[in-house]
Protein 1
Amino acid sequence: MTSDHEVGPDRASARPGPAPRDVDLDRVWVGVAAEVWRRRPGPVERLAGRLLRSPGLARALVTTPSLLLAWVVATAVVLLAGALATLGTGTPYVALVAPAVAAAGIAYAYGPGVDPAWELSCSVAVSDRMVLLVRALTVFGLNAAFGLAASAASGVATAVTLGWLLPMTAVCALALATATVARSANVGVAAGVASWLIAILAGQAATGRISAAVTTSALWLPCLAFAGCCAAIVLYTTRIPKGSS
Amino acid sequence: MNVATTDLTRRFGRNVAVAGVTLDAGPGVFGLLGPNGAGKTSLLRMLATVIPPSSGRIRLLGRDPGVYGQRRQIRRRLGYVPQNLGFYPGFTVVEFVEYFALLKELPAAEVHRAVAVAVERVGLGDKATAKLRTLSGGMLRRVGIAQAIVNEPELLLLDEPTAGLDPAQRVAFRALLRDLGQQATVIVSTHLVEDVGAACTQVALMDQGKIVFHGTPDELVARGAGTTAAGDAPLERGYSAVLAEAGS
């Protein structure tokens, strides 16, 4: 589709004049262009590429919408505010807020509603299920790390500091499963946040304490089982049925 | 055959988008014509391994896309331009094409050169470092084509690729299609009958999920000869005549 009038200024300047007959200028130009246009991956992408052993998967990871700088900063700010509120009131706000924040991040990690090139990415060699897995794990890990830091900074009891991690796993799994089945990040966020809100309110109604949802160890096993079920739903939804082709 | 489908069907709920399509295609440019809702896009999406069929068989490049390992091998040699090309507005042309080169698992040492070749081939060399949000619709279409050909695919699937291109760009694009069709199987879904006449060696016409005509452009022209079918050009009259027959 290239014609002479489409040659850009960069290319024009790369052609100083007549060349010897045995020089293929198009070939030379492509070599020059490949070097001039070469993108240098950042340190995070390089590290991810080594860890995942796939430059494509690493590139897909660093384009995760909920890992972009603005989102990460917003997450940190919310949890920092939660830590300050916890310090001021003694109520474990970090533990109460962290699962909902993480669920939103997970729901916005992957899918047709948030990834503009999702249709194309379903036709490439790097499996969309691998992209989903890597993105979800990374978003979860980052949110868990932020939550732990904020929880530790807020000085609440160790039981509460760790008590939200399992509910967070369950809420994130629900958000991911719902977003994947409904093919909508917003539906995933709504399901995750609503379920966590219901859990908090139910805990408060049963015990009179708003922190019951993150301090009742009896919920940990059901949370793990629920997360496992949600993970199974995600795997089932993203499969290509055998015998269909 | 690079594409072989047998009794391929795809349902969305109660709606049957593709109804028992049997199709073989080897190297060359294959035009897929049909009115809106005929099932062209659903057929292309199945061939692009984006959605699985509800029933029937597909073999692409001699492999079964229902098997993970074989599907991955197919996808490495596949190029696809969907009807609605999604893009990352903050990416440059080169970054976008490179992103898909990496996802198609091109060897790292070949990626940069392959990207440069693809970008030059669609005439976007002077926009290589421009952000996608600054490009016109026609240029974005060409970016989509660049990412599709970056891995020099053996099977190239293009859904309405000339939408948004101006006449000069369409002429250049048809030349590119003919060039690509020398080696690869290129399947082009289009509303524009003149694209088929200018670039395709084979043509299929779909209506209500079924293939109602399969032959050469000349054979399609012959179907309209001597009829009162609507159309300004012989191919359009052939197209209208076949659709009228299928509907009667």
Note: Residues 44-237 of chain A form one domain.
Protein 2
Amino acid sequence: MSTATITRRTEGGPDAPQRRRRMTPLRMLLHGFLIAVSLAWLFPIAWAVLTSLRSYEYTAANGYVSFGGWTLDNYVTAWQTAEFGKHFLNSVYITVPAVLLTLFLASCVAFVIARFSWKLNLVLLGVFTAANLLPQQALLIPLFRLFTEVPLPEFMSDSELLYDSYWGLILINVAFQCGFCVFVLSNYMKALPRDLYEAAMVDGASIWRQYWQVTMPLCRPALAALATLEVTWIYNEFFWATVLMRTGDKFPVTSSLNNLRGEFFTDNNLVSAGSVLVAIPTLVIFFMLQRHFVRGLTLGASKG
Amino acid sequence: MSDLPLIQADRAVPPPATTTSTGGRRRRLRLLSRTDRVVITLMVLVPLLLVTGFVWLPAAATVLLSGTDWDGIGPLNEIDFVGARNYSDVVNIYPPFVPAIQHNLLWLGALFVVATPFGMFLAVLLDKELRGSRFYQTALYLPVVLSLALIGFVWQLLYSRDQGLINAVFGSNIDWYGDSNVNIWAVMVASGWRHVGYIMLLYLAGLKGVDPSLREAAAVDGASESRTFFRVVFPVLRPINVIVLVVTVIESLRAFDLVWVVNKGRNGLELISALVTQNVVGEASRIGFGSALATIMLVVSLVFITIYLATVMRENRQ
Amino acid sequence: MSRPRSQAEYLARLVPPSVAGINRRSLLAGAAGTGALLGTGLLAGCGDDAGGSDSKDVSLGSNQSDPKPKDVLAKVADGFKTSSGVQVAVNTVDHNTFQENINNYLQGKPDDVFTWFAGYRMRFFAQKGLASDISDVWGKLSGYSDAFKKASTGDDGKQYFVPASYYPWAMFYRKSVWQQYGYQVPTTLDQLTALGAQMKRDGLVPIAFADKDGWPAMGTFDILNLRINGYQFHVDLMAGKEAWTSDKVKKVFDTWAGLLPLHQPDSLGRTWQEAAQSLQQKKSGMYMLGLFVGQQFSNEEQSDLDFFTFPEIDPAIGAKALDAPIDGYMMARKPKNEDNARKLLEYFGGKEAGDITVKNDPATLVANGSADVSGYTALQKKAAELVGSATEIAQFLDRDTRPDFASTVMIPAIQQFIKNPKDIDGLTSSIENQKKSIFTD
């Protein structure tokens, strides 16, 4: 039962005594190094946050290496100018269904790949994984044409096309993200003990029940990890949103950041504030799911 | 190939027990009911159609378009084919092409030699179940959560020649983003900053999956920590090593957002992906020419993807 | 005095006291509110489009995403609603995305009327059938000079564009700095060079300069080309009819190379705002840029800002041509509410829309000559006079030529020139080779 071992170990069971080991000089050195690296890593972000809290008036006159001009106005202005409220909602409309659909479809394929040992599986894995790695800009023009040709009923899309509809945007994100999830999930599922299925088959469980009631519950950590990553990626994605939509009011929040950049003039402090606002949801998701994160990504392929 | 040592190292490890024999497989197939077969077909077919329709067909269309001089306007039947002219133009008279190839290679080199090993090193340190490990993980991973556009902007605050922090603190006068001899390095620092966190996390996940008994056995034999890592853990992690390698290659091939935010991939920051975008996206609309660049990029990506899949395949045969 | 915190504040400060009854916050709130209202209007509009024909609305695709112009457009749309009873559903997309997606946008399901600018691209859309002939609207318009009508006309002699506003490019400077050192406006290239040398001795950077974004330096190329070779050569060169390897083009680059030592160094890492700030902080003597340079100056400093047109280089050519890009509106192919779209365009080109713009947006010049311009600042008045006295008006390099040529060839080429001004032969032959491959039809 290799997964069981993995799980227990990461929860700290066998290693618990190790953690309480006293501080040797070597350990202190290690901590010192890690703290230094962490601070260095945090610094650019902290600097952006700091910038967002200062007035343009002050920093333009005194430069950024100065002290003063503290204000929260940038946040208020950013929120209003870019109409973040509305656009956050748009991002939710796109991200939530896209992530759920990606995980569902990817787990289906991954299940088949992991559950059976057909020759075709490898081709399948290849088709999905490679699709995730293709450069997106390269596919824009054919995709745009496709989107303007596919009709949708009016209740689904104002434009009566895939173009300029959330449906289209959700599907394109799912298509591009499936590959990575299939890859991770199939590896994870392969590491599950096969006896489970033998037992389920003796009970007469159908393939669907094996998938939904046996495999999926065991994949929770992997699904949580993938959900975190996918939320981050799909939420941050704005290339497709801006080229496959034409109604500014439907754009997701990441692209509405552009509204803060003037045609001729850009106020860095204001853009910083907007950037911080935009980054908050991904940070929240990360903190919420962090516990599952590393464990879930365990690709399951390195059992001893 | 650079990944050869990794593959050879693997030979030292006993292959995992095969779970199914050919006979078993055939038996299981026969046990599937009609409904089961329909379910399996649907489970594969629906996602497959989606990916084929939205990724592979457009990719094929891009390859076709690379043989035309289409400007993206008007009906498809009016497109003129110009043969390989776009490709010869790319190579012969397009000044940014050669620098772009060089920069992509440089990018790959920097990530491969510096950022990836550093991320792996940090993962190994963080695998020690240290106190505060969560804080370190979070700090290192934070840049991964941010969009690259945002990262480009964040670093601009540090790099700006007249208003940036670096020049102000060190009293230097370096044009970090504008000097074409310097800017590629400046951008790679920002890119590495993000890449390290990503690799750290992937690798940490891999390390957590290593059976502790392996290490315990090595420790009993009196092997030092670094020896244990290189002789025992590293070879076992071969699948992760391959993933990390491929992620590095693909990230450096697809590198785009950062240079795009800085100056749209010009003046020292030429990258293939940025050239594709300059030509295809936006007003320029040199679809044929841009598609030729895109096809070159697709082919290079596919070479690496194939190498990677071949490795996975060998893995599965064992 | 303090510098404006943001562009919105800067612009709000420029509003003449007569109309400045509202403060900036309420302006923004108003803009947001209008946006929300328009949002619902848009949804409703889309529903109607599918159903009926005699609808009381019209859609407008707008790239006016900055708070101030967006607000002005909303006010003009309100004015149209009052005068005609037709509701305008404004679809605002940030100007950058709008411009990048324009080809796809126009081939997808565009709004009835959309913002665009005069120049090659306007004529190109007309020729490709992506925009509709609006000659009948022009029949009802008055107050435009012939130059504006010409700039609105496609290759087939019909009109496709209604001009709304424009801004000239010139050499900007601070009067106080020039008074302090006793500088005189140069009228020849030699005087300009001498002036630059004097500024250097006085510890100033003679000409502020920035080209990180790739387009600002095009203004310098344009004006040198206009002064050395004249307007017609500019047009032919941009149309791909003249060779970039010709001596005429080389002379432009040669002259520029001679002036480069007077320009601010390390320009490729600098945005125009940073360069403009060096002018504002009295570190530079002058700056070749569009009228929008004023955005980097506070309200109090506006009266200290002045400009002169780029001096004469060849007496046979003179110094009467300049870049003054025109912004305006076009009608999509097959608009859903065609009658309303034509009415809206007529309104945009009329005096009333011009008056509303003058009153609310002091950063631009209004194209329609019949608009009441008594609210102009001194700088605006001078700018309008400069353009009025110009013999020919160019639209700017990236608006006068194919966009693929401008963005994928000219931007890298000019940046290459700035990096290495010595290899003019290699540069021009590289441009010419790429030009031949792009201008095939």
Note: The longest helix of chain A spans residues 84-115.
